[in-house]
Amino acid sequence: MRAEIITIGDELLIGQVVDTNSAWMAEQLNVYGIELYQITSVHDSREHILMALNEAFSRADIVLTTGGLGPTKDDITKQVLCEYFGTHLIEDTRVRAHINQLYKERPDVLNRLTATQWLVPESAEILENRVGSAPLMVFHHGKQLLAAMPGVPYEMKIAMEEQILPYIGHTTASILHKTLQVTGIPESSLAILLEEYEQSMPASLHLAYLPKDGIIRLRLSAYGDLSEAEVQQWFERLKMLVSGYMIAETDEPLEVIVGRLLKERHQTISTAESCTGGKLASLLNKHAGSSEFYYGSIISYDNSVKEHLLGVPEEVIQTHGVVSEEVVRVMAESVRKRLNTDFSIATSGIAGPSGGSETKPVGTVWIAWATPNGTCAECFHLGKLREQITDRACTKALVKMIELLKK
């Protein structure tokens, strides 16, 4: 079974809003064994929406749309769907009752524009939007199906999980994905290492290389007739081939892996950041449950903060420079002691675009890891672009932390 997604809204096409909906929807469709064939973004334009619908139905069994279901003038999706399916709007008393209940504590929201929300296409099957006013609409197009949802991410996710996916139901199709993560080897060298493996794979098996910030995710995908046991056998072969570079045999974010390992060991971590400016702290406390292992950070961007809060001696900075092994070691050991954690990570580097020298060019980053068994530090050269440098620094910090926690 094949699906397409159409995201509707001018804001998506001018870069004002980033489409995060489609990536999440794609993951859910895969779980249900539904192949996503194409994602299309269109303007709030009758002609553009109609054209996208025609093209999607020429290829897909299921069409999912998001956006354009609000009460304002630019929200035209409902009207265009009426035109496409040859129907008209009628009042739905259930939707009206839901909206009145939804906004009973906010009577100012109930106005003539809100009232348009309980007008729905007569031929559509209406599903409840538990958290919003825009009703979920399902149209049947012969053997094909279209489901229209709001573009607000949290509304769309609840709609998909509670209504749309159960409505579609699990299919007989089988799409299996298994992912592992490697580091310390260039993508081209990895491809050479896996050349024979790829040549021997059956046609229904596909290996994808997904590099980012020094990590390469290897995703093994099986479409069709391979059993889960057979896919697992291929995955085990892959793990053996890359065992010297593998840091995880799941597709979890690195900070999630660090958190899980710390929780398993009943240990804690803190950070002292200079060049990464809190980015590492943001990653470590990003996910629910982080309070069990992450205590906090000292963002010591200025030298005075390094000296006064982290106790880095001025003479050490003068002698070795702020981007040095000596400085990050003191930073890591000091924050570990001050915040009373088992581990800590410290970063100091030159993220650019200025500030580099011949001996320490832009992209030079020192990272230290203070542990119950001592402190280690390493220097990296992480490129020329500021965001790339800080992202890669966080990746290096977390990769090494995983290695330390697995010892």
Features:
alpha/beta; 6-stranded mixed sheet; 5-stranded mixed sheet
Report the uncertain regions: none
Summed up, the helix count is 15
Order of strands side by side in the largest beta sheet?
Answer: 2-1-3-8-7-6
The level of helicity is 25-40%
Structural class, by secondary structure, is alpha/beta
Short structural description:
This protein has 407 residues and is α/β, with parallel strands linked by helices.
Secondary structure layout:
Elements: E1 2-8, H1 10-13, H2 21-31, E2 35-42, H3 46-57, E3 62-66, H4 77-84, E4 89-91, H5 93-102, E5 119-121, E6 125-127, E7 136-141, E8 144-149, H6 153-168, E9 175-183, H7 187-193, H8 195-200, E10 205-212, E11 215-223, H9 228-241, E12 246-248, H10 254-265, E13 269-273, H11 279-284, E14 294-299, H12 303-308, H13 314-320, H14 325-339, E15 343-349, E16 364-371, E17 374-381, H15 386-406
Parallel strand pairs: 1-2, 1-3, 3-8, 13-14, 13-15
Antiparallel strand pairs: 4-5, 6-7, 7-8, 9-11, 9-12, 10-11, 15-16, 16-17
Written account of the structure:
- It is a single chain.
- The protein is an alpha/beta fold.
- Helices cover about 40% and strands about 25% of the residues.
- The protein has helices at about 10-15, 20-30, 45-55, 75-85, 95-100, 155-170, 185-195, 195-200, 230-240, 255-265, 280-285, 305-310, 315-320, 325-340, 385-405; strands spanning about 1-10, 35-40, 60-65, 90, 120, 125, 135-140, 145-150, 175-185, 205-210, 215-225, 245-250, 270-275, 295-300, 345-350, 365-370, 375-380.
- The strands form four sheets. It has a six-stranded mixed β-sheet with strand order 2-1-3-8-7-6, with helices on both faces. Strands 14-13-15-16-17 form a five-stranded mixed β-sheet, with helices on both faces.
- Helix 3 (about 45-55) crosses helix 4.
- It is globular and about 80 Å long.
- The model has no long low-confidence stretch (mean pLDDT about 95).
